[in-house]
From TrEMBL:
<comment type="function">
    <text>Catalyzes the dehydration of 6-phospho-D-gluconate to 2-dehydro-3-deoxy-6-phospho-D-gluconate.</text>
</comment>
<comment type="pathway">
    <text>Carbohydrate metabolism; Entner-Doudoroff pathway.</text>
</comment>
<dbReference type="Pfam" id="PF24877">
    <property type="entry name" value="ILV_EDD_C"/>
</dbReference>
<feature type="domain" description="Dihydroxy-acid/6-phosphogluconate dehydratase C-terminal">
    <location>
        <begin position="407"/>
        <end position="600"/>
    </location>
</feature>
<keyword id="KW-0004">4Fe-4S</keyword>
<dbReference type="InterPro" id="IPR004786">
    <property type="entry name" value="6-phosphgluc_deHydtase"/>
</dbReference>
<dbReference type="GO" id="GO:0051539">
    <property type="term" value="F:4 iron, 4 sulfur cluster binding"/>
</dbReference>
<protein>
    <recommendedName>
        <fullName>Phosphogluconate dehydratase</fullName>
        <ecNumber>4.2.1.12</ecNumber>
    </recommendedName>
</protein>
<dbReference type="GO" id="GO:0019521">
    <property type="term" value="P:D-gluconate metabolic process"/>
</dbReference>
<feature type="binding site">
    <location>
        <position position="156"/>
    </location>
    <ligand>
        <name>[4Fe-4S] cluster</name>
    </ligand>
</feature>
<feature type="binding site">
    <location>
        <position position="223"/>
    </location>
    <ligand>
        <name>[4Fe-4S] cluster</name>
    </ligand>
</feature>
<dbReference type="InterPro" id="IPR020558">
    <property type="entry name" value="DiOHA_6PGluconate_deHydtase_CS"/>
</dbReference>
<dbReference type="GO" id="GO:0009255">
    <property type="term" value="P:Entner-Doudoroff pathway through 6-phosphogluconate"/>
</dbReference>
<keyword id="KW-0311">Gluconate utilization</keyword>
<dbReference type="GO" id="GO:0046872">
    <property type="term" value="F:metal ion binding"/>
</dbReference>
<comment type="similarity">
    <text>Belongs to the IlvD/Edd family.</text>
</comment>
<feature type="domain" description="Dihydroxy-acid/6-phosphogluconate dehydratase N-terminal">
    <location>
        <begin position="70"/>
        <end position="381"/>
    </location>
</feature>
Length: 604
């Protein structure tokens, strides 16, 4: 299989840019591997503490220093639907490990917060920072140096990127990510969105709104729209950290359990003590990162990954940029229509052929690197198959040759769009990204005066007061990582959608986030430099004419550019936004955090 020149060019640029940092990373990985069986480095007292709570069989196995020990890092909690299924996974993993002649221990737990719960609340200010907390929490669990391989249990927005950063930090250890799957289909996502808009217009009450939301988010599993959580699962599969076809199998099914058991056995088969040593740091390289970017673009995935993938790659010594993403977006076709990019949910996507169909189409058309290392073996070809569980036997069969629903999943020769779902915007206002896959072509260019707000509530208040009656570009600033932790502003989606439906040309410009649920309103997000750093967004004044052109990839102040750039940036006293709901504990993060285009990370 020959990869297209444009894909290879981006891959080569990343490799060249990362030559020194990647070499240093691999040298550190080799040194960690060369220390040998890790429990051998522990004193008797250390080791006794490490297996004190084990049963006699496991204790004897670990004392002998020959049995493999599998670490479990879990994001389980039973408040969040996506992570509730993980409650029973440790027992399942332990049993599967014993069947394979090994031992499994929960190495540690990591926090898992839900942007759906904190949306529009002060707790949202901790959301992005939780990614780096998760990475550090996993590192604490693995620092006991007791494990030959690790399984990672995580699903949602910041959890998987944080776990990947940890897995790559401990890149000498094999890492297998085990998903829990999406909840079954409930109220259609477009109907949920319709009720939300009716509520904002005062046409239905809170009881009707809650009923609709409850029918949509109704049981264990991931939310079924294609936001960051399900983009995470797509990425783990296309980058080779899942088993083939594992991403979108529903919780509580025999196939789900069979895949979990197979993942455990595979993790124990690829340790340094075996013949198929596959450390996480070798699975993730420039080719697998580009494969992940291609998958993100081909499915119209989450805008959050314009930051997360940068941070994840950085943990492996790889340097990627928004320009890399933009170059790929110009050539990668859009092959999936999943809400908010369409009416279907991820269950419909999976039923139409899912990841196996998608990967085969992209491979055959030259958009993916096949010659990569995965936890399942050499080559991405194995991921063009899908799992079956028949008569208590797990097998893998070729994905269907034809899409089960061409309105949801398209062939590479007949894409929904010739270019990807994400775009880089640049100009005299800085850099930002926009998700265009759900935005109609007629709404992708807007030239209008600015309306400036320093909170999303300010815009909502203006809407309720009837002040938003003509075309405008909403500027919501001081929402960046250094200012307040970069919360999502998805609460604005129904309001902006209402205005657009009324015939008003509207767009959003912000240094905050809009999430994988970015919808039909053009939203230039992750603006950098952010307002708190004195970026151009802080110089915009009420009524300034702005132009957002998602087709050309530009975002521009219209007027005397020299005079505009000479303006003194606006400032905002944010002290009141730094206390309450734990935000005071993250002062150090706000000081250390990097810019959005560098991953908004406290590590680099």
């Amino acid at each position: 299989m020959t990869v297209k020149t444009a894909i290879k060019d981006v891959t080569d640029r990343i490799a060249a840019r990362s030559e020194l940092s990647r070499r240093d990373y691999l040298d550190r990985l080799d040194k960690a591997r060369d220390k040998g069986v890790h429990r051998a480095a522990l004193s008797c007292g250390n080791l006794a503490h490490g297996f004190a709570a084990c049963g006699p069989t496991d204790k004897a196995a670990l004392a002998g220093d020959q049995a493999l020990n599998l670490g479990i890092i879990t994001a389980y909690n039973d408040m969040l639907s996506a992570h509730q299924p993980y409650e029973t996974y440790p027992d399942l993993i332990r049993a599967a490990a014993r069947d394979a002649g090994g031992v499994a221990q929960v190495a540690g737990g990591v926090p898992a917060m839900c942007d759906g719960v904190t949306q529009g609340q002060t707790g949202m200010d901790l959301s992005l920072f939780s990614r780096d907390v998760i990475a550090m929490s996993a590192a604490v669990g693995l620092s006991h140096n007791m494990f030959d391989a690790v399984t990672y249990l995580g699903i949602c927005d910041k959890i998987v990127p944080g776990l990947v950063i940890a897995a790559l930090t401990f890149g000498h250890l094999p890492a297998v990510f085990i998903p829990a799957g999406p909840m079954t289909t409930g109220l259609p996502n477009d109907e949920k969105a319709r009720v939300r808009q009716l509520f904002m217009e005062g046409k239905v009450g809170r009881a009707e709104l809650l009923e609709a939301e409850s029918k949509s988010y109704h049981g264990p599993g991931t939310c079924t729209f294609y936001g960051t959580a399900n983009s995470n699962q797509m990425l783990m599969e296309i980058m080779g950290l899942h088993l083939p076809g594992a991403s979108f199998v529903n919780p509580g099914t025999p196939l789900r359990d069979a895949l979990t058991k197979a993942a455990v056995k595979r993790a124990l088969a690829i340790t340094a003590q075996g013949n198929e040593y596959t450390p996480a740091g070798h699975v993730i390289d420039e080719k697998s990162i580009v494969n992940g970017l291609v998958g993100l673009l081909a499915t119209g995935g989450s805008t959050n990954h314009t930051m997360h993938l940068v941070a994840m790659a950085n943990a492996a010594g790889l340097r990627i940029t928004w320009d890399d993403m933009s170059a790929l977006s110009d050539v990668v076709p859009l092959l999936a229509r999943v809400y908010p990019n369409g009416l279907a949910d991820v269950n419909h996507f999976h039923a139409a052929g899912g990841m196996g169909f998608l990967i085969r189409e992209l491979l055959d058309a030259g958009y993916l690197h096949e010659d990569v290392t995965t936890v399942w073996g050499k080559g991405l070809e194995a991921y063009t198959k899908e799992p079956r569980y028949i008569e208590e036997e797990l097998s893998f069969e070729p994905a269907p040759k034809e899409s089960g629903n061409p309105k949801v999943l398209a062939k590479a020769t007949e894409p929904f769009a010739k270019t990807g779902g994400l775009k880089l915007l640049s100009g005299n206002l800085g850099k930002s990204v926009i998700k265009v896959s759900a935005v109609k072509p007629e709404n992708r260019v807007i030239e209008a005066p600015a309306k400036v707000f320093h909170t999303q509530q300010g815009l909502l208040d203006a809407f309720k007061a009837g002040e938003l009656t003509s075309d405008f570009i909403a500027v919501i600033r001081f929402q960046g990582p250094r200012a307040v932790g970069m919360p999502e502003l998805h609460k604005l989606t129904p309001t902006l959608g209402i205005l657009q439906d009324r015939g008003i040309k509207v767009a959003l410009l912000t240094d905050g986030r809009m999430s994988g649920a970015s919808g039909k309103v053009p939203a230039a997000i992750h603006m950098t430099p952010e307002a708190a750093d004195g970026g151009p967004i802080a110089k915009i004044r009420e009524g300034d004419m702005l132009r957002l052109d998602a087709e050309a990839g530009t975002l521009t102040y219209l007027g005397d550019e020299r005079a505009f750039l000479a303006r003194t940036p606006a400032t905002e006293n944010l002290e009141h936004e730094h206390f309450g709901m734990g935000r005071e504990l993250f002062a150090g993060f706000r000081q250390l955090v990097g810019t959005a285009d560098r991953g908004a990370s406290v590590f680099a």
